[in-house]
Amino acid sequence: MPELPETETIARDLDREVSGARIGSVTVTRPDVLRESSTDAFVQRVSGTTIRHAWRRAKLIVLDLSTGDRIVVQPRFTGAVLVDAGELPDEERRYSTMELALDDGRRLHYRDIRRLGTVTVMSPDRFASYVSRLGDEPLDPSFTPERLGELLRNSRQAVKKSLMDQRVVVGLGNIYAVEALWRARIDPSRASRTIARDEIARLHDGIVGVLTESIAHRGTSFRDYRDAHGARGGFVPHLAAYGREGEACRRCGRKLIGTHAIDGRATVFCATCQR
Fold first, then answer.
1. Which end is more exposed in the chain, N or C (fewer Cβ atoms within 10 Å of the end residue's Cβ)?
2. How many angstroms separate the CA atoms of 97 and 27, rounded?
3. Active site residues
4. What string of H, E and C letters represents the secondary structure of 188-257?
5. Residue-wise pLDDT tens for the chain (275 aa)?
6. Cα gap 174→146, rounded to integer Å
7. Ramachandran quadrant class, 51 (left: phi over 0; alpha: psi -120 to 50; beta: rest)
8. Given CA atoms 212, 58, 3, 121 in this order, what sign does their dihedral have?
9. Going from the N-terminus, what domains does the chain have, and what CATH number goes with each?
10. Cα(235)–Cα(73) distance, rounded to whole angstroms?
């Protein structure tokens, strides 16, 4: 967390709210979130630049700057990029690790409670090298059922583990892998290469469908995820499997099973529906 729907929501908010804004000054209070540059170097490269565009790649939030550099935020578990127009709750400011002062008086915070996320300023070449290792974007038109089949065809890994491998498909974490597999009626522990063509088509629909629907509800908030305004996502009531261990399957009524045996993460599935 945050996964693709959450980072997409934040990026869209930021693009609407701060594109065109000039960064007047930068204050870094927790330098341990920085990667690939010192505090002084980061401040020097970012101060005085204009934010041209905010967008998402995989689980990354990317701010394109007027110099060609990019601020790349990887929120991981508890990170968030928050626009502060003076109304941000003190609890959110308390965990701010850096503050970008915009020329219109607002502040842009990178808030990270556990400080496991990272912030990096990258040149275009460095960014291109960094993302070259990432897999397919599941909401891109090129991500077809045929392409998904190619990605899974030769893998002996459990299909859930393959879906969460960011070198294969980006943006899917535990929540949406569990949900997509429930929708596709596929046992998360099955070897990827055993998934048949008709199942691949259902899995593709499950992936695209759950991501699209979650974006429409502005993501999933269990604990720490907040959008760019500090608000919670609204997708939790629409989850069919994740977080519902021991409850009735919404498709067949049997009790959902929880396990950590597949990849060490909490996996919830229906042993009756998912084969």
1. C
2. 9
3. 2-3, 59, 265
4. CCCEHHHCCHHHHHHHHHHHHHHHHHHHHCCCCCCCCCCCCCCCCCCCHHHCCCCCCCCCECCCCCCECE
5. 689 999 999 999 999 999 999 999 999 999 999 999 999 999 999 999 999 999 999 999 999 999 999 999 999 989 999 999 988 888 888 899 999 999 999 999 999 999 999 999 999 999 999 999 999 999 999 999 999 999 999 999 999 999 999 999 999 999 999 999 999 999 999 999 999 999 999 999 999 999 999 999 999 998 889 999 999 999 999 999 999 999 999 999 999 999 999 989 999 999 999 99
6. 23
7. beta
8. negative
9. 4-131 (3.20.190.10), 145-269 (1.10.8.50)
10. 23
pTM of the model: 0.94
- Which of 213-216's residues contact partners 24+ apart within 8 Å by CB, and which partners? 213/238, 214/5, 214/176, 214/238, 215/5, 215/8, 215/9
